[in-house]
C-alpha cells in the first residue's frame, strides 16, 4: 500500500536546493521549482505512476511544470477543477505506445493506420493531457507512467503535496534521472548532449546551448544510439529506466495494441 502524500508548506522550507538544469521557463518558474525541490527533499511517500496516468487521462489533474536537476526529474501537478475533458481512449492508446518507445511505423502497421495518423493522434492525445510538447520530447516521468499502465503495481515515484503562498495545492512527483549511469559509458561531450535530449530539448536547442552546429549534435546522438542499440530518444529513455532503476520490474510488453479486425481497419480507412 502507498502511504498518503506528505504535505509541506513552502514558507517553512529554507534548505539549500540542488542546481536546476536550464531547460525552459526558468524565469517564470524558478521560485516554484525551488519550492518543489525543497518539498521533495522532505517527502517520504510514493505515488504509483499508473495513478498519474489515470488522473491525467481522466482530466482530473493537469501538469503545471516539468523540470530537472542534475540528479532528479520532476513533475508539478494541480487539480484541473473540471476544466479538462477526458482524453479519447483510442488516442491515448496510441500515445502510450509511442511513449513506450515503439516506432510509429510499427504502431501504424498494427493498427492499419498511416504513420501520419499515428503521429497526429499521439500529438492530440498529449495536448489533451495538457502537455505542450511533441511525443518524441515528452517528460521521462510521463513516459514511465505510460509504461506503468501495464505494470500498475510496480512503478512508483516520490510524491508530496506542496502548499504555495497563495494557498494553491500542488502535487510534486520526482524520480532519479534515468541517465545517471551513462557517465560510465559515454564521453563527457556525448553525455551532456544525451542528458539534454532526455530533458526534451530538440537538436537545434542543444546546438544553441552548446555553441555548435545541429549536424554535430545529430552525429553525436546517432553515435550514442548505435552504441546503445536504440532507435530513438523514447526507446532510450525507456531502456534506461528499466535497466537502471527497474531491476525488479519487467520490461514493457512487446505487443503494442490490441489487434484490430480487417473489418474495423477498413472502416477506419474509409472514415
What does it look like?
With 271 residues, the protein is α+β, with helices and mostly antiparallel strands. The protein has one domain. The chain has eleven helices and six strands. Strands 1, 2, 3, 4, 5 and 6 form a six-stranded mixed sheet that branches. Helix 3 packs across helix 6 and helix 4 crosses helix 5. The longest helix has 17 residues. The radius of gyration is 19 Å and the shape is globular. The N and C termini lie far apart (45 Å). The N terminus and C terminus are likely disordered.
Task: Indicate the topology.
Blueprint: E1 6-9, H1 26-42, E2 45-48, H2 49-57, E3 61-68, E4 72-79, H3 89-99, H4 104-111, H5 115-128, H6 140-148, E5 156-163, E6 169-176, H7 188-198, H8 203-210, H9 214-228, H10 233-245, H11 262-270
Parallel strand pairs: 1-5
Antiparallel strand pairs: 2-5, 3-4, 4-6, 5-6
Helix pairs in contact: 2-6, 3-5, 3-6, 4-5, 6-10, 8-9
Question: Can I get a quick summary?
Answer:
Helices cover 46% and strands 15% of the residues.
Largest sheet: 6 strands, mixed
In angstroms, what is the radius of gyration? Answer: 19 Å
> Number of helical segments?
11
Quantity of strands, as a count: 6
Instruction: Report low-confidence residues grouped into runs of 5 or more.
Output: 1-20, 244-271
Supply the number of structural domains.
Answer: 1
> Between the first and last Cα atoms, what is the distance in angstroms?
45 Å
Assess the beta-strand content as a share of residues. 5-15%
Mean pLDDT: 80
- The sequence of SSEs as H and E is EHEHEEHHHHEEHHHHH
Helix content: 40-55%
Structural class: alpha+beta
Amino acid at each position: 500500500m502507498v502511504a498518503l502524500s506528505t504535505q509541506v508548506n513552502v514558507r517553512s522550507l529554507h534548505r539549500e536546493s540542488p542546481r536546476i538544469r536550464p531547460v525552459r521557463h526558468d524565469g517564470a518558474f524558478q521560485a516554484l521549482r525551488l519550492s518543489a525541490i525543497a518539498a521533495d527533499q522532505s517527502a517520504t511517500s510514493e505515488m504509483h505512476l499508473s495513478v498519474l496516468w489515470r488522473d491525467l487521462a481522466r482530466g482530473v489533474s493537469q501538469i503545471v511544470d516539468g523540470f530537472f536537476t542534475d540528479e532528479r526529474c520532476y513533475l508539478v501537478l494541480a487539480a484541473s477543477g473540471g476544466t479538462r475533458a477526458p482524453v479519447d481512449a483510442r488516442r491515448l492508446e496510441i500515445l502510450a505506445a509511442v511513449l513506450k518507445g515503439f516506432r510509429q511505423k510499427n504502431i501504424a502497421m498494427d493498427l492499419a493506420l498511416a504513420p501520419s495518423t499515428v503521429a497526429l493522434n499521439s500529438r492530440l492525445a498529449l495536448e489533451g493531457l495538457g502537455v505542450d510538447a511533441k511525443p518524441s520530447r515528452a517528460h521521462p516521468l510521463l513516459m514511465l507512467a505510460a509504461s506503468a499502465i501495464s505494470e500498475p503495481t510496480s512503478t512508483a515515484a516520490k510524491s508530496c503535496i506542496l502548499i504555495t503562498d497563495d494557498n494553491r495545492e500542488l502535487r510534486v512527483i520526482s524520480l532519479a534521472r534515468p541517465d545517471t549511469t551513462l557517465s560510465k559509458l559515454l564521453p563527457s561531450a556525448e553525455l551532456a548532449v544525451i542528458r539534454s535530449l532526455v530533458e526534451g530539448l530538440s537538436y537545434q536547442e542543444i546546438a544553441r546551448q552548446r555553441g555548435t552546429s545541429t549536424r554535430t549534435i545529430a552525429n553525436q546522438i546517432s553515435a550514442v544510439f548505435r552504441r546503445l542499440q536504440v532507435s530513438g530518444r523514447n526507446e532510450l529513455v525507456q531502456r534506461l529506466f528499466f535497466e537502471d532503476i527497474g531491476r525488479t520490474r519487467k520490461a514493457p510488453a512487446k505487443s503494442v495494441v490490441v489487434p484490430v479486425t480487417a473489418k474495423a481497419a477498413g472502416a477506419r480507412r474509409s472514415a
